[in-house]
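Retro notes (design track)

What went well: tokenization of the new backbones is finally stable.
What didn't: we kept losing track of which sequence belonged to which structure.
Fix going forward: every design gets posted as structure first, then sequence, in one message. First example under the new rule, 286 residues:
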């Protein structure tokens, strides 16, 4: 049971890193970006190519995957997303779902349709026993990295000048510009950072989730569930939702394998019946 709990926490942490960028763009920038998984896929393939083809050390490939996805996100934000910030949500959905299919087709053409994995170093392979609990080394790495990221991201958004400027830009762009805040730069950096986090999550997830061109479609529903259950007013909600869903998904697949992914949907339904706006929802304002 403790081993399942540990694996569920690791899986939940991975879901958080993959989905927290979507939580930021949706909750703080009011942008529905269904193509978020495409940036995660870009980071995953960057790691696979760097490690498997060029022999780059796995640990070095992680920040490089973040950088690759962040740069792609910055370019896409300036070229495409900036034009739909004030558009209705339906138009945002149609645009971003179109980008997903374009990313899937392009990746399949360039990288092929075969599922690939990054070669992990020997130090991360296997597991060790800790008070009778089997601790997977790779999953322990995920928990440590994702835990540090969660704390750092919460601090950035709530304790720094950048976080306060971002919230001001979201609440009222005209007033923010009047105060000398470069709203365009704030949004571009935020989108790039969220894309980079997705890329890092995709890089870390290659060992557990695998990687193929359908990745953005396959895990899109998981990202949306995390954001929906957690709410979009803070990072705390998606973090707790990721842990809840990760543990529930792993435990469900172990104890009731015939139900498969239905466990995670059941958890979502129960939470949303209890709190329709998510665990931590933004207070409504007129």
């Amino acid at each position: 049971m403790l081993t399942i709990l540990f694996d569920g926490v690791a899986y939940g942490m991975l879901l958080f890193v993959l989905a927290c960028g979507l939580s930021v763009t949706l909750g703080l920038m009011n942008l529905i970006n269904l193509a978020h998984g495409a940036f995660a896929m870009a980071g995953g393939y960057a790691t696979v190519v760097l490690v498997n083809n060029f022999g780059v050390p796995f640990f070095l490939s992680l920040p490089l995957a973040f950088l690759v996805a962040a740069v792609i996100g910055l370019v896409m934000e300036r070229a495409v997303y900036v034009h739909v910030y004030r558009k209705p949500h339906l138009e945002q959905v149609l645009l971003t779902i179109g980008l997903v299919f374009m990313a899937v087709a392009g990746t399949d053409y360039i990288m092929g349709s075969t599922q690939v994995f990054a070669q992990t170093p020997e130090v991360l392979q296997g597991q060790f026993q800790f008070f009778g609990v089997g601790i997977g080394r790779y999953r322990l790495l995920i928990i440590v990295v994702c835990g540090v990221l969660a704390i750092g991201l919460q601090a950035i958004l709530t304790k720094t000048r950048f976080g306060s400027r971002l919230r001001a830009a979201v609440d009222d762009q005209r007033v923010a510009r009047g105060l000398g805040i470069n709203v365009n730069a704030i949004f571009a950096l935020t989108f790039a950072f969220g894309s980079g986090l997705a890329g890092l999550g995709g890089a870390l997830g290659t060992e557990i989730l695998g990687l193929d061109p359908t990745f953005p479609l396959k895990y899109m529903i998981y990202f949306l569930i995390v954001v929906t259950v957690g709410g979009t007013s803070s990072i705390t909600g998606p973090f707790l939702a990721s842990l809840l869903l990760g543990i529930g998904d792993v435990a469900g697949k172990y104890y009731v394998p015939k139900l498969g992914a239905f466990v995670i949907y059941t958890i979502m339904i129960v939470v949303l019946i209890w709190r329709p706006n998510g665990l931590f929802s933004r207070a409504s304002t007129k």
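Added context from the reviewer: The first strand starts at residue 127 and ends at 130.
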